[in-house]
Amino acid sequence: MNPPNLSESIPHLLELHRLKNQTVQLGAWPVRVSEHLRFVGILEGKFNWQIEGVPYILYPNDVVVLCPWHRIGNETATLEIGSFIEIALQTNKLEFEGSLQLGAWSALAEIDQRIIGKLLSNGPLVISHFKTLNELLQTIESEAKNGAFGHQTRINQVIDQLFIETVRQLSQQQSQRRDFSQAFGELEKMLRDSLDHPWTVEEMATIVGMSTTAFTEKVKSYSGFSPINYLINIRIAEAMRQIRQTDKSLTDIALDMGFYSSQHFSTTFKKLTGYTPGQYRKAPRPPERE
Amino acid sequence: MDCIITIDIGTAQVKVSAFDTSARLVAARRGAYPTFHPQPDQSEQDPEQIFLTVLYALKSLLNEGLDRKHRPIALIFGASMHSLLPIDKHGVPLRNAVIWADNRGHNEADALRQHLLGQEIYEATGTPLHPMSPLVKLCWFKNHTPASWFERVYKFISIKEYILFQLTGQLVIDHSMASATGLLNIHQFGWEQKALHHAGVRMSQLSEVVPIHFDELKLKKEYVRLFRLPSSTKIIIGASDGCLATLGAGVVKEGDATITIGSSGAVRVAGSEVIKDPHQRFFNYVLTPDIYISGGPTNNGGVVFEWFAQQLGASGLFLDLEQSVEQLLREAERVPAGAGGLLFLPYLLGERAPLWNANVRGAYIGTNITHERKHFVRATIEGVVYEIHSIGKLLQQYRNIENLYLNGNYATRPLVAQIIADVFGKAVHINDQHDSASTGAALLALTHLGIYPTLPEAAQTVRSVETYQPDAVTHERYARFTQIFERLSQKLQEDFDALVALQA
């Protein structure tokens, strides 16, 4: 059987190739933009790559996951000896602030795609000793090569599995390598970067790498707030700044802070600050007592 | 039953506590907020988030934490020192607040230290010329922002002033907080013209200075409602957390000292005179015009234990850093004093007192083939204590220290307390009130309300519940280590400079 024409049968699989390099090649591997959502799995050798300006030394079974805007390559453009496999995927949407829609070919639930988008856009992922992912990449390769019955379905399933395994591995690494305060600090940064995102506790817990119950308890003992109250606190603090420092309408501020209605925003704002947003904008600012 | 509400606005969290009129803790709430690092050497906080967190913690204590029979008669405030926040004429922050840990002004600090004017400013203001000082931060802003921006700033205030401004609409600063800005003349208790001139700020760009018992603050009616407070509740301005923690440890007279190891650390003494150190190694802050709190701060306290726990100890999401540190302490207990001759310099974050050198770094020295992880754990703890001791030793050139009182999360652990006693060769005491800053605030309020006649009498009510006695033999052994420690700290500075250049 001839290898199938992938661009027809699996149009969202934009690139799939294995690169085997037996001599050092100067100028062959410059730092460049990934352009697509991309998985790179190292099979043999050792590569010194710059990924988003950070130097990494990659060994077999290390996997790199890149967003379209991430930059990767060798600082002196040298392609070192070894081999790796890469795939690039077309997505309906993958944006800087982390919204991801893979497309109809994926069976992943919407909330799962959202979490994946958040994790991916948070920075390039470099996962070491991740044999499972490399095996999955090779499965995609051989399915594509053989073009046996059902290969389209299989490949789509395996791609979904790539994402699932990546998130699980990340969660596990989180819980092994970081203590809670570090993990919470990273989560907090993600929250701030997209306050309008409809965050759920489940989503936050997954990002930190904990069950929802354990996460909620931990946030409480760490910060004194429940996760949702902590998030609301950040949202209202940012709203206070925007109300006073910008001319943005209160409705726009409410929406940008992730409140689904200005009424809901107003009630929450008043409950926390003692003022409605309108009062706060107009609040008299008494001069210093002389 | 009447009670005092203390609000301690710290670096990582606000603690709101209720004390009864004998200064016993009744209930407490807290809320945490983050520090941002836009650049590795910068540390900033969001004033609005801190304000909201204060509101949340206060509201939850007053509305849920206290039952009906407790009636708040006064609110009093303590806060971290050295923060700087520019606001416009509407009281709106022009940027995030720059906090004590921020190092962006290191060039400005170095320049001023080498200048005769620096010595004069230090003597007048009592705040070491270091990037922590708001004076130095202002110099940085002067050098790095357009003059028009600097001019547009209505006031330069601290986070504490901002919180009070939000709550009351009034802009005032207490003597104690003001004395940590590098801008206040600590002998005359007014803004120091020389410092202001050097920083390029006008007197009108600073708040009015008031005593720590100032109580002419009035809560906005929205907050009286939100907190459900009796309208008679007094709002007392309070002091800085460092001064309050010293008072709350019962230390207001000569002969006593406090050792604090929280995430950073300090050795502090109280006295009616400032310490005049020609090398500018100590701070002199104002509690009241009769009581100065002097001493030396270290960058490398519990943060060093936490670093060790995170990098080399048992770590994981489900372990609190505290639990992880706890495990390390148990491991260290199994190693005899001196860690088998392994010595640790703890300067992971550069150092303030006594070296005042941002470029010193950490080092394990004397490693041999028999050393195990537990020796490193023990050496790490001992290194932090040697550093504290080197501050204490210098202080003793100026003050007689007989009694040591420990506070802060890490100094009060039994193992650490015993090591401190042995290294200093003095008995150390741990008080019944662990949160010294809040206790100090309560004592100050109670004294102002006439329940105690004077602060020293109020301070006497703090009782020590545990005492650790030094072991003479161990002390002698440690004395040999502290000598080597001090020599190495001096000797290696040049090499650290060279290494730091490679760490950039």
The global form of chain A is elongated
Radius of gyration of chain A from CA coordinates: 23 Å
CATH class category name of the largest domain in chain A: Mainly Beta
Structural class of chain B: alpha/beta
| Largest interface by Cβ-Cβ < 8 Å | A-B, 41 and 43 residues
Output mean pLDDT of chain B: 94
Trace the largest sheet of chain B across and list its strands: 16-17-15-14-20-21-22
Strand content of the residues of chain B, in percent?
15-25%
Order of helices and strands of chain A: HEEEEEEEEEEHEHHHHHHHHH
Q: What proportion of the residues of chain A form beta strands (DSSP E)?
A: 15-25%
Output the strand order for the largest sheet of chain A: 1-8-3-6-11
Which second-level CATH architecture of the largest domain in chain A applies? Answer: Sandwich
CATH superfamily descriptor of the largest domain in chain A:
Jelly Rolls
Q: What is the total tally of β strands of chain A? A: 11
Helical stretch tally of chain B? 18
3D architecture notes:
The complex is a heterodimer of chains A (290) and B (504). Chain A has 290 residues and is an alpha+beta fold. Chain A folds into 2 domains: 172 residues, Jelly Rolls, CATH 2.60.120; 106 residues, Homeodomain-like (Arc Repressor Mutant, subunit A), CATH 1.10.10.60. Helix content of chain A is 47%, strand content 18%. Chain A has 11 helices and 11 strands. In chain A, strands 1-8-3-6-11 form a 5-stranded antiparallel β-sheet. Chain A has a 4-stranded antiparallel β-sheet with strand order 2-7-4-5, with no helix packed on it. Chain A has a two-stranded antiparallel ribbon with strand order 9-10. In chain A, strand 4 and strand 5 form a beta hairpin. The longest helix of chain A has 27 residues. By secondary structure, chain B is of the alpha/beta class. Chain B has 2 domains: 242 residues, 2-Layer Sandwich (Nucleotidyltransferase, domain 5); 216 residues, 2-Layer Sandwich (Nucleotidyltransferase, domain 5), CATH 3.30.420.40. Chain B is built from 18 helices and 22 strands. Chain B has a 7-stranded mixed β-sheet, with helices on both faces. Chain B has a 5-stranded mixed β-sheet with strand order 3-2-1-5-13, sandwiched between helices. A two-stranded antiparallel sheet of chain B has the order 4-7. In chain B, helix 4 runs parallel beside helix 8 and helix 14 packs across helix 17. The longest helix of chain B has 23 residues. At the A-B interface, helix 4, helix 5, helix 7 and helix 8 of A face strand 3, helix 1 and helix 9 of B.
